[in-house]
Amino acid sequence: MIYFKINELIQQKERMENRVISLQTISDESGVNRSALSKMKSPNIKYSTTTNTIEDLCRYFKCSVGDVIEFREDA
């Protein structure tokens, strides 16, 4: 399954910027819908998105695609 590493990216950005970052802040600053971020944040929800959304997240977090998503074998 595809796993979104949003939680890890948020924690890393919070540490780097020494501030709490809400999903609403990410949504406002990246243009990615807040409910989509919420679904990506939950590992129990299978969610599909567009390459535009992945690109927006890469731009926001200043990272590569592999930092946003990864493939994991179903357990």
UniProtKB/TrEMBL annotation:
Domain of life where this protein originates: Bacteria
Coiled-coil ranges (or none): none
InterPro entries registered for this protein in UniProt: Cro/C1-type_HTH (IPR001387), Lambda_DNA-bd_dom_sf (IPR010982)
SUPFAM superfamilies in UniProt: lambda repressor-like DNA-binding domains
TM ranges: none
Pfam families assigned: HTH_26
Residue ranges occupied by any HTH cro/C1-type domain in the UniProt entry: 14-73
Annotated protein name in UniProt: HTH cro/C1-type domain-containing protein
Higher taxonomy: Bacteria, Pseudomonadati, Pseudomonadota, Gammaproteobacteria, Alteromonadales
